[in-house]
Design a protein that fits this description.
295 residues, alpha/beta, Methionyl-tRNA Fmet Formyltransferase, Chain A, domain 2, 29% strand, 6-stranded antiparallel β-sheet, 7-stranded mixed β-sheet, Rossmann fold, 2 domains
Length: 295
């Protein structure tokens, strides 16, 4: 059987997992890689140059600008991972075996953007990584396979992204050989079924202390490193909360009179106890809070 010619489009740590697999597979050749610019500030940026030192590597977020370069190398397959921009129909239709990508949900549920953050904030206890074929609609192509990913109650977004990398490794090893041999692996999705997620904005990360402990705790977990973090404002300053933990309600006479958002105690520099609607959170911040009292 002939070598499978694959163009890779992607970056970040899960993209590196994919490219390392392709580079090590003796039945695969990678004539072209399109990845993020070297000075990119995308979360979990990964330098892909060490994976394939002799390959033609284009550093450009606009993959659609390079359709002719892709055509010239005549790929059998395109694989996409760690890549947010949409790809045109003209690009994804170039290879005869299609274009394969990944999405962190049980498709058709949770198509769209900022998916893992929404899932963690809403208290999901599991998700999945779906390997699927691209088509004209985002995240709506035929499904190849899905691998379950547990979301533990103390997992932060970085922990879940590590699990996505592991699931990417597993799916690549299990299913690319089947795609190469031509075994049909397609489970159609209906575009009218499932749900879509919008891209999160800064306001989605603002903490409202007049919410219950679990709601605030989940928000903090959902957008912590490598993302900008949940935040509140104090005397005109934006203060980011990187980590938190629900703690037992202090047995103090003043607590029943404390308002949501009131700092009850400074435990150490950058670590505080804060009153929420129904309890107390221990928080770790990016800077000191100059005065105690209500946030």
């Amino acid at each position: 059987m002939s070598t499978l010619r694959v163009v890779f489009i992607g970056g970040q740590t899960n993209g590196r997992v994919v490219l390392e697999y392709l580079a090590a597979n003796r039945h695969v050749s990678v004539p072209l890689v399109i990845t993020h610019p070297v000075d990119s500030h995308v979360p979990r940026y990964a330098d892909l140059a060490p994976c394939l030192k002799t390959v033609n590597m284009i550093h450009d977020i606009h993959a659609d600008h390079h359709v002719e370069e892709i055509r010239r190398v005549s790929p059998d397959l395109i694989v996409v991972a760690g890549w947010s921009p949409l790809l045109s129909r003209g690009l994804i239709s170039i290879p005869p075996r299609g274009t394969i990508g990944f999405h962190p949900s049980w498709l058709p549920r949770d198509r769209g953007r900022s998916v893992l953050a929404w899932q963690i904030e809403e208290g999901y206890t599991e998700t999945a990584l779906t390997m699927f074929y691209y088509n004209d609609l985002p995240d709506c192509g035929d499904i190849i396979a899905q691998e379950r990913i547990a979301i533990e109650s103390n997992d932060y977004i970085g922990d879940v992204l590590d699990k996505v990398d592991e699931a990417t490794f597993n799916l690549m090893h299990a299913y690319v050989p089947l795609v190469r041999t031509g075994i049909p692996l397609r489970r159609p999705q209906s575009p009218t079924e499932g749900t879509f997620r919008r891209l999160r904005t800064d306001r989605d990360s603002r903490i409202d202390w007049d919410r219950n402990v679990r709601t605030i705790y989940n928000k903090i977990r959902a957008v912590s490193r490598p993302y900008p973090g949940a935040f509140f404002e104090r005397n005109g300053r934006r203060i980011t909360v990187w980590r938190s933990d629900p703690v037992p309600m202090p047995d103090e006479e003043c607590l029943p009179h404390a308002l949501p958002g009131q700092i009850l105690k400074r435990l150490r520099p950058l670590e505080y106890l804060v009153r929420c609607r129904d309890g107390v959170l221990r928080i770790e911040t990016d800077q000191s809070i100059p005065e105690l009292g209500c946030l």
